[in-house]
Amino acid sequence: MAGAQQQHVQMSSSRSWRCAIGIACALVGLSAVPAAAQRIENSVAIFAALDKVTAKISRLEVPLNETRSFGALKVTPRVCYTREPTEPPKTTTFVEVDETLLDGKEKRIFSGWMFADSPGLNAVEHPVFDVWLTDCAQPRVTARRPPPAGAAPGIVPPPEREEPDLPRRRRVPR
To answer: What is the 8-class DSSP label of residue 60?
Structure first.
Protein backbone atom coordinates (compact mmCIF):
# COMPACT_ATOMS: atom_id res chain seq x y z
CA MET A 1 0.00 0.00 0.00
CA ALA A 2 2.90 2.36 0.77
CA GLY A 3 4.21 2.02 -2.77
CA ALA A 4 0.84 2.98 -4.29
CA GLN A 5 0.58 5.96 -1.94
CA GLN A 6 4.11 7.11 -2.86
CA GLN A 7 3.29 6.80 -6.58
CA HIS A 8 0.11 8.89 -6.06
CA VAL A 9 2.14 11.64 -4.29
CA GLN A 10 4.68 11.66 -7.15
CA MET A 11 1.89 11.96 -9.76
CA SER A 12 0.25 14.79 -7.79
CA SER A 13 3.50 16.76 -7.55
CA SER A 14 4.19 16.12 -11.23
CA ARG A 15 0.73 17.47 -12.13
CA SER A 16 1.21 20.54 -9.95
CA TRP A 17 4.57 21.26 -11.61
CA ARG A 18 3.01 20.91 -15.05
CA CYS A 19 0.18 23.21 -13.98
CA ALA A 20 2.63 25.79 -12.60
CA ILE A 21 4.70 25.67 -15.77
CA GLY A 22 1.56 26.05 -17.88
CA ILE A 23 0.41 29.09 -15.89
CA ALA A 24 3.87 30.68 -16.11
CA CYS A 25 3.96 30.15 -19.87
CA ALA A 26 0.48 31.65 -20.21
CA LEU A 27 1.51 34.74 -18.21
CA VAL A 28 4.67 35.20 -20.28
CA GLY A 29 2.60 34.75 -23.45
CA LEU A 30 0.11 37.40 -22.34
CA SER A 31 2.80 40.01 -21.93
CA ALA A 32 4.14 39.24 -25.41
CA VAL A 33 0.79 39.54 -27.20
CA PRO A 34 1.27 41.86 -30.17
CA ALA A 35 -0.96 44.88 -30.49
CA ALA A 36 -3.92 44.52 -32.81
CA ALA A 37 -3.14 45.98 -36.22
CA GLN A 38 -4.65 49.42 -36.65
CA ARG A 39 -6.63 49.69 -39.84
CA ILE A 40 -6.13 52.77 -41.96
CA GLU A 41 -9.09 54.39 -43.68
CA ASN A 42 -8.36 55.60 -47.19
CA SER A 43 -10.09 58.10 -49.47
CA VAL A 44 -9.55 56.29 -52.78
CA ALA A 45 -10.04 52.68 -53.86
CA ILE A 46 -7.93 51.40 -56.75
CA PHE A 47 -9.37 48.69 -58.97
CA ALA A 48 -8.16 46.74 -61.98
CA ALA A 49 -10.83 46.29 -64.62
CA LEU A 50 -10.65 43.79 -67.48
CA ASP A 51 -12.56 44.05 -70.73
CA LYS A 52 -12.72 40.40 -71.82
CA VAL A 53 -13.53 41.27 -75.44
CA THR A 54 -10.46 43.46 -76.03
CA ALA A 55 -8.31 41.85 -73.29
CA LYS A 56 -7.49 45.34 -72.05
CA ILE A 57 -6.88 45.91 -68.32
CA SER A 58 -7.57 49.41 -67.01
CA ARG A 59 -6.73 51.01 -63.68
CA LEU A 60 -9.66 52.68 -61.95
CA GLU A 61 -8.96 55.12 -59.10
CA VAL A 62 -12.32 55.87 -57.54
CA PRO A 63 -12.81 58.24 -54.59
CA LEU A 64 -15.11 56.88 -51.89
CA ASN A 65 -18.85 57.39 -52.49
CA GLU A 66 -18.22 58.46 -56.09
CA THR A 67 -19.09 56.40 -59.15
CA ARG A 68 -16.82 55.62 -62.12
CA SER A 69 -17.90 53.82 -65.26
CA PHE A 70 -16.07 51.01 -66.97
CA GLY A 71 -17.92 49.81 -70.03
CA ALA A 72 -21.46 49.03 -68.90
CA LEU A 73 -20.42 48.84 -65.23
CA LYS A 74 -20.58 51.57 -62.61
CA VAL A 75 -18.27 51.07 -59.62
CA THR A 76 -18.95 52.85 -56.30
CA PRO A 77 -16.65 52.12 -53.34
CA ARG A 78 -18.02 52.97 -49.88
CA VAL A 79 -14.96 52.30 -47.65
CA CYS A 80 -11.38 51.20 -48.28
CA TYR A 81 -9.12 49.90 -45.51
CA THR A 82 -5.43 49.03 -45.42
CA ARG A 83 -2.87 48.36 -42.68
CA GLU A 84 0.41 50.02 -41.82
CA PRO A 85 3.36 48.98 -44.03
CA THR A 86 4.95 47.12 -41.10
CA GLU A 87 1.88 44.87 -40.72
CA PRO A 88 0.82 41.95 -42.94
CA PRO A 89 -1.16 43.37 -45.88
CA LYS A 90 -4.92 43.33 -45.65
CA THR A 91 -6.58 45.66 -48.13
CA THR A 92 -10.37 45.57 -48.22
CA THR A 93 -13.19 47.63 -49.65
CA PHE A 94 -16.95 47.60 -49.58
CA VAL A 95 -18.10 48.26 -53.12
CA GLU A 96 -21.31 48.37 -55.12
CA VAL A 97 -21.26 47.58 -58.84
CA ASP A 98 -24.21 48.34 -61.10
CA GLU A 99 -24.68 47.33 -64.71
CA THR A 100 -26.36 49.64 -67.22
CA LEU A 101 -28.72 47.48 -69.27
CA LEU A 102 -29.63 48.01 -72.93
CA ASP A 103 -32.93 49.67 -71.99
CA GLY A 104 -31.06 52.25 -69.85
CA LYS A 105 -32.04 50.77 -66.50
CA GLU A 106 -29.44 49.94 -63.89
CA LYS A 107 -29.17 46.58 -62.18
CA ARG A 108 -27.05 45.93 -59.07
CA ILE A 109 -24.81 42.96 -59.88
CA PHE A 110 -22.48 43.15 -56.86
CA SER A 111 -22.62 44.60 -53.38
CA GLY A 112 -20.09 43.41 -50.84
CA TRP A 113 -16.53 43.24 -49.58
CA MET A 114 -13.57 42.75 -51.91
CA PHE A 115 -10.14 41.65 -50.71
CA ALA A 116 -6.99 42.61 -52.61
CA ASP A 117 -5.09 39.51 -51.46
CA SER A 118 -7.94 37.20 -52.58
CA PRO A 119 -9.44 38.69 -55.74
CA GLY A 120 -11.40 35.56 -56.59
CA LEU A 121 -13.07 35.29 -53.20
CA ASN A 122 -15.76 37.93 -53.81
CA ALA A 123 -15.55 38.75 -57.47
CA VAL A 124 -17.82 40.65 -59.83
CA GLU A 125 -19.33 38.02 -62.09
CA HIS A 126 -20.06 39.45 -65.50
CA PRO A 127 -19.72 37.87 -68.96
CA VAL A 128 -17.82 40.83 -70.47
CA PHE A 129 -16.09 42.67 -67.59
CA ASP A 130 -14.10 41.78 -64.49
CA VAL A 131 -13.35 44.23 -61.66
CA TRP A 132 -11.17 43.52 -58.65
CA LEU A 133 -9.54 45.54 -55.87
CA THR A 134 -5.79 46.11 -56.06
CA ASP A 135 -5.07 48.82 -53.49
CA CYS A 136 -6.27 51.85 -51.56
CA ALA A 137 -4.74 55.34 -51.65
CA GLN A 138 -4.77 58.66 -49.82
CA PRO A 139 -4.89 57.46 -46.21
CA ARG A 140 -6.87 59.54 -43.77
CA VAL A 141 -5.34 60.39 -40.41
CA THR A 142 -6.45 57.84 -37.83
CA ALA A 143 -5.88 58.27 -34.14
CA ARG A 144 -4.78 55.36 -32.00
CA ARG A 145 -6.93 54.65 -28.99
CA PRO A 146 -5.22 55.22 -25.65
CA PRO A 147 -5.19 52.22 -23.30
CA PRO A 148 -8.08 52.15 -20.85
CA ALA A 149 -7.44 53.61 -17.39
CA GLY A 150 -6.05 51.06 -14.99
CA ALA A 151 -4.75 48.72 -17.69
CA ALA A 152 -1.56 46.90 -16.78
CA PRO A 153 1.47 47.98 -18.83
CA GLY A 154 2.46 45.53 -21.53
CA ILE A 155 -0.92 43.81 -21.64
CA VAL A 156 -2.98 44.78 -24.63
CA PRO A 157 -6.75 44.84 -24.14
CA PRO A 158 -8.83 43.08 -26.79
CA PRO A 159 -9.67 45.41 -29.69
CA GLU A 160 -13.09 46.96 -29.72
CA ARG A 161 -15.22 45.89 -32.60
CA GLU A 162 -15.68 48.75 -35.03
CA GLU A 163 -18.67 48.73 -37.28
CA PRO A 164 -18.25 50.54 -40.59
CA ASP A 165 -20.99 52.97 -41.54
CA LEU A 166 -22.61 50.73 -44.11
CA PRO A 167 -26.20 50.17 -45.06
CA ARG A 168 -27.70 47.49 -42.86
CA ARG A 169 -29.55 44.50 -44.22
CA ARG A 170 -33.00 43.93 -42.88
CA ARG A 171 -34.03 40.48 -41.77
CA VAL A 172 -37.30 39.34 -43.19
CA PRO A 173 -39.32 37.25 -40.71
CA ARG A 174 -40.28 33.85 -42.02
So the answer is: E
